[in-house]
Structure formats: structure tokens, C-alpha cells
Specification:
The protein is of the alpha/beta class and 151 residues long. The protein has one domain: TIM Barrel (Alpha-Beta Barrel). Helices cover 45% and strands 15% of the residues. The two termini are 14 Å apart. The mean pLDDT is 93.
């Protein structure tokens, strides 16, 4: 497995430059800006789009998970996996955690519908978990068996 690099950027030009410099690595892109995520997904070659679920404000009838059917379709065409920020789940407060898990569940449904792969991204070494724990969490949240195999 080749080296992974996580690029967190809020300006498209800087993100593009960093992505182009790291073409030989597995590129994980993350941004809190949904429009930037879409632009990067459409125009650049990345391997995993890491969607941050904390700190978002839900709509009245739908959760704001930072991921929608348009992004799912683009990710499918470009063969990009969707990343789950595991550190975010572990470090969330007792009030934020259920919201994050609900948004994650919504994203899992979208990924399943579009046959997209999902991966847990763990940056903090103390949050490292056994692969079976991650697969179990995925199954509880509604991941089908084919999706938990590739975690």
C-alpha cells in the first residue's frame, strides 16, 4: 500500500497545487466547504473524499451531511471512495455524536445506492481501532456486506 496524504484546504488553487504535487500517493481530500468538495471532485484526481460531519447545521426536513446524489454520481464516474472521519465520531460530545452518526447513516444509504466504496480515515493514533470493530460499526450503521469488506 502506498503512502497516504490528507489535504485539507479551503482555497481551490492551493488545493489543486497540493494535489498535483502528490500524484504518486493516495490522496485524501477534505474541506468544510461543500462547493469546493464538488469542484475538486469534478476537476482533480483524488482517491478519497473525506467528508466532515461535525459542526454542520441540519435543515428542517433533511440532514446536512455534506454529500448528495450529485456528488455521489460524480464520485462514481471518477472512481473516488468516500471517507468517514472516525476521529470526529470518537471525539464528539454526547450531544453532537448522534447527529454525526445520523448524517453518516444518510451518506451510507447514498453510497450504497450508487455502489460507492467507503473508508474509515483515522488520523489520531489513539483512536485506532481493530478492523472488526470498524466493520461492526459500519454494519450497525447500515452498510451492506460488500461495503464492509472494503473498509
Amino acid at each position: 500500500m502506498s503512502e497516504q496524504i490528507i489535504i485539507k484546504e479551503s482555497i481551490f488553487e492551493k488545493a489543486r497545487k497540493l494535489i498535483r504535487e502528490a500524484q504518486d500517493k493516495i490522496i485524501i481530500f477534505s474541506s468544510d466547504n461543500d462547493e469546493l468538495n464538488r469542484k475538486i471532485l469534478e476537476k482533480e484526481k483524488i482517491n478519497i473524499l473525506l467528508i466532515n460531519l461535525a459542526g454542520k447545521k441540519d435543515f428542517q426536513k433533511q440532514r446536512d451531511s455534506g454529500f448528495n446524489q450529485v456528488l455521489a454520481k460524480i464520485a462514481k464516474e471518477k472512481n473516488v471512495a468516500i471517507g468517514i472521519n472516525f476521529d470526529e465520531i470518537i471525539q464528539a460530545s454526547q450531544y453532537e455524536k448522534p447527529k454525526i452518526l445520523a448524517r453518516l447513516k444518510q451518506n451510507i444509504k447514498l453510497c450504497n445506492k450508487n455502489k460507492l466504496k467507503m473508508k474509515f480515515i483515522i488520523q489520531n493514533p489513539e483512536n485506532q481501532r481493530d478492523i472488526y470493530d470498524l466493520k461492526s460499526l459500519g454494519a450497525v450503521l447500515g452498510m451492506p456486506t460488500w461495503m464492509t469488506k472494503t473498509i
